[in-house]
Amino acid sequence: MSEATSSTPTLTTALTAVAATAGVAIVLRAIKRHFSPTISSKLQCKCGKIQGHVHAKYEDSARIYCYCQDCRDYANYIASLGGNKDETIGKEFGDNRVVQFCKNAITIEQGQEHLKLAIKKKEPNSKQVYMHRYYAGCCHVPLMNTVDFLGFVGVFCDFLDEKAVEQWDGPCRMFQDEGLGQPNPPFPDASPAPFIWKLIRYLPWRKSGPFDYDLTPVYWGDDSNGEKKEEKKKDE
């Protein structure tokens, strides 16, 4: 028997074992999710013109503290649209805090017309995927971050009920190397496994939720953006 032929059963056995393990993990995750409590929170912008609710299972949530420079720059830019350059929601160490849910967990009941879209100005020849970042055009605060082809969204903790936020899974941290410091002890790093699970699990709901991807965006990171005054005028 040749070496190639003898290795075939071993490879088949290994693949079967991997598939079986993955299948068991998915079943266990589904059972765990079924018995997971649903946590509800009011969603409201700073001035109260945008109001809605979030109803999400604990197993579907992830509380994330993001230390990236992009999130800080974005929050500063949105605040500047309303003339509040010094009033951002960044925390002591430069982190912005969100809770991730499936998009279908969010309902906007009032003020949908004030929900605006911001996208980072694209660099020439860049292949980077840029987020669809939604903010309140009425009071100029960031509310939600997502991408049109993903089934989940990050909602800023500042505009959810504090007690509900504390009940959702987490916190964990991302891009801590871009932070302005770290709490002691630091929060654990975000694990890639839950992220991969969300990519697959929530894909059918990628077009769910109160997200209009055809809105004309403001492009932050672009000093020549001429929509600042127009945007402010529309929502006054």
- Main-sheet strand order equals 10-3-4-9-8-7-6-11
Order of helices and strands: HEEEHEEEEEEHEHEH
- CATH architecture label name of the largest domain: Beta Complex
What global shape is seen? globular
The third-level CATH topology of the largest domain is: Metal Binding Protein, Guanine Nucleotide Exchange Factor, Chain A
Helix content: 25-40%
- End-to-end Cα distance: 81 Å
User: Residue-averaged pLDDT, rounded?
Assistant: 81
**How would you sum up the major sheet?**
8 strands, mixed
Please, could you describe this protein's structure?
With about 240 residues, this protein is α+β, with helices and mostly antiparallel strands. The protein folds into two domains: about 1-35; about 40-235, Metal Binding Protein, Guanine Nucleotide Exchange Factor, Chain A. About 30% of the residues lie in helices and about 25% in strands. The protein has five helices and eleven strands, in the order αβββαββββββαβαβα. The chain has helices at about 5-35, 70-80, 160-165, 190-200, 230-235; strands at about 40-45, 50-55, 60-65, 95-100, 105-110, 115-120, 130-135, 140-145, 150-155, 170-175, 220. The protein has an eight-stranded mixed beta sheet. The longest helix has about 30 residues, at about 5-35. The N and C termini lie far apart (about 80 Å). The relative contact order is 0.18. The model is unreliable at about 1-5 and about 225-235 (pLDDT under 50). Keywords: Membrane, Transmembrane, Transmembrane helix. InterPro entries: DUF6151, Mss4-like_sf.
Quick tags:
5 helices; eight-stranded mixed β-sheet; Metal Binding Protein, Guanine Nucleotide Exchange Factor, Chain A; disordered C terminus; alpha+beta; 236 residues; globular; three-stranded antiparallel β-sheet; 2 domains
